[in-house]
Amino acid sequence: MIDLDYLAFLENILTENRKANFLKVLENRTKHFTVAVEDVYQMHNTSAVMRSCEVFGIQELNVIEQRFGKRIDKEIALGAQKWVDINRFDSVSGCLSDLRNKGYQIIATTPHEKDCMLEDFDITKPSALFFGTEKEGLSQEIMDNADGFLKIPMVGFTESLNISVSAAIIIQSLTNRLRRSDIDWKLSEEEILAKRLDWAKNSIRDIKRIEERYYQDNPKS
C-alpha cells in the first residue's frame, strides 16, 4: 500500500517541472512487454538494452546472471537505471518461472528456429522478450521453454545483429504498435503511484536522512 502522505511530502520537494515530467513519462510506461537478457558478459550491452527499455517505455528489465558477474555501466545507461526496474535472477529456471507466474509468454529472439517476423508478431499477449549472449545466443533451456520465436527481417549477408541493436529495433517496433492499438497496455493507478514514489526518492539527495526525519515526525499509529 502506497503511503500517499509520504508521496505528497516528497513531491513537495520536487520542482513542478519534474513532477509534470514524471506524469508524462508514466503515461507511456508499460509492463505489457518485458525484456530479459541472459548471461550477457559484455556489460555495456546490458546497459544499452536498459537504456532502450527506458527510452521506449518498457518498465522492467530481467537480468539472468547465471555465469557472469554484473555491474551497470552508468556511462552507457545514462541514468536509465534510476527509471527502469531491474529484476535479477541467478538461474534461467527462476526467471522463466517468475515471468510465467506474472502471465507472460516466453518469446525467444533468434534468427533461426520457427521464427515469426517482427512485423507479424501478435502484440495482444503479454510477452517476455528474451535476448541472448553475443556469440552463443540463447541457451537451450530457454529455447526449449519458449512459446514462440521472433526475428528481425534482414536482407544482407550478416545473419545477426549486436544484442543492444536487436533489442532497440524490436522494442521500438513493438511499443509503437502497442500505443496505436486498443490493448490495455498502460500501468495501473497503483503501479503509477508506486513509480512516482520510487522516482521521487531517486531524485532527492540524502533521501535516507529525509525519510528518517519524516517518519520520526510522522510516526505510524
TrEMBL record:
<keyword id="KW-0949">S-adenosyl-L-methionine</keyword>
<keyword id="KW-0820">tRNA-binding</keyword>
<feature type="binding site">
    <location>
        <position position="161"/>
    </location>
    <ligand>
        <name>S-adenosyl-L-methionine</name>
    </ligand>
</feature>
<dbReference type="GO" id="GO:0000049">
    <property type="term" value="F:tRNA binding"/>
</dbReference>
<comment type="function">
    <text>Catalyzes the 2'-O methylation of guanosine at position 18 in tRNA.</text>
</comment>
<feature type="domain" description="tRNA/rRNA methyltransferase SpoU type">
    <location>
        <begin position="33"/>
        <end position="171"/>
    </location>
</feature>
<protein>
    <recommendedName>
        <fullName>tRNA (guanosine(18)-2'-O)-methyltransferase</fullName>
        <ecNumber>2.1.1.34</ecNumber>
    </recommendedName>
</protein>
<comment type="similarity">
    <text>Belongs to the class IV-like SAM-binding methyltransferase superfamily. RNA methyltransferase TrmH family.</text>
</comment>
<dbReference type="GO" id="GO:0002938">
    <property type="term" value="P:tRNA guanine ribose methylation"/>
</dbReference>
<keyword id="KW-0819">tRNA processing</keyword>
<feature type="binding site">
    <location>
        <position position="152"/>
    </location>
    <ligand>
        <name>S-adenosyl-L-methionine</name>
    </ligand>
</feature>
<dbReference type="InterPro" id="IPR029026">
    <property type="entry name" value="tRNA_m1G_MTases_N"/>
</dbReference>
<dbReference type="GO" id="GO:0141100">
    <property type="term" value="F:tRNA (guanine(18)-2'-O)-methyltransferase activity"/>
</dbReference>
<dbReference type="InterPro" id="IPR029028">
    <property type="entry name" value="Alpha/beta_knot_MTases"/>
</dbReference>
<dbReference type="Pfam" id="PF00588">
    <property type="entry name" value="SpoU_methylase"/>
</dbReference>
<feature type="binding site">
    <location>
        <position position="109"/>
    </location>
    <ligand>
        <name>S-adenosyl-L-methionine</name>
    </ligand>
</feature>
<keyword id="KW-0808">Transferase</keyword>
<dbReference type="InterPro" id="IPR001537">
    <property type="entry name" value="SpoU_MeTrfase"/>
</dbReference>
<dbReference type="InterPro" id="IPR033671">
    <property type="entry name" value="TrmH"/>
</dbReference>
<keyword id="KW-0694">RNA-binding</keyword>
<keyword id="KW-0489">Methyltransferase</keyword>
